[in-house]
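Quarterly update from the structural biology core.
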Amino acid sequence: MTLRHTLLALPLVLLAACGPAKKDETADAAKPAAQSGAKGPVAVAVTPYAGGPLNVTKDGVGPISGSTAFDLPTLKALFPKAKVEQAFLHFGEGPAQPIINVEQDNAPLLEIGKTDEGAIAYVAAAAGEVRGPKGEQLLAKWGDLGFTIDQCRAGQGREINQTICVRPEAPSVSYVFGVPGWTGPGLPSEAVLKAKGQLNALVWRPAEGAVVGAA
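Predicted structure, tokenized:
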């Protein structure tokens, strides 16, 4: 091979040597990024409750959802402006049940119950600016909320003499109605509910533990 041929061939050799290396560099740089995207956790932002309307939906109560632990530090973080304290509920002849009370602006806000497995059993909201799944407010009249008598049952235990109603589209939320002066063993008539029934509380249960009509 002549010197001229050698000089012409040299750039081709250099290009061949550089080409694959650049390709591999690009592939190596992209590979960790792709792996990182595939394995990285997806963060879900939860906004703590500071005040104002507290929404009760089929999925939870304000910042509380089905994945929230029955845990004092967790609930304190979700309600940073509230007084969040552990207590015990004494009712009937059984043992006292652990609960967590949430109080804000010197008024009761929530009562949170615990299952035997240590998870949240229910969240009861009976004061403050509570809003139901359709924007219902406490003290609303039964006759104004669109319930039918077949969506309700007579309360038992702590809800004795009260009427518990559930909407089919939100079975995890119980509406607790009171009828002043009612002490009957069963449900008040539809006429009595329309005349006197008022919303005293909303009770949410996680979906896996929800029972239609349960409070």
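Residues 1-44, 209-215 have pLDDT under 50 and may be disordered.
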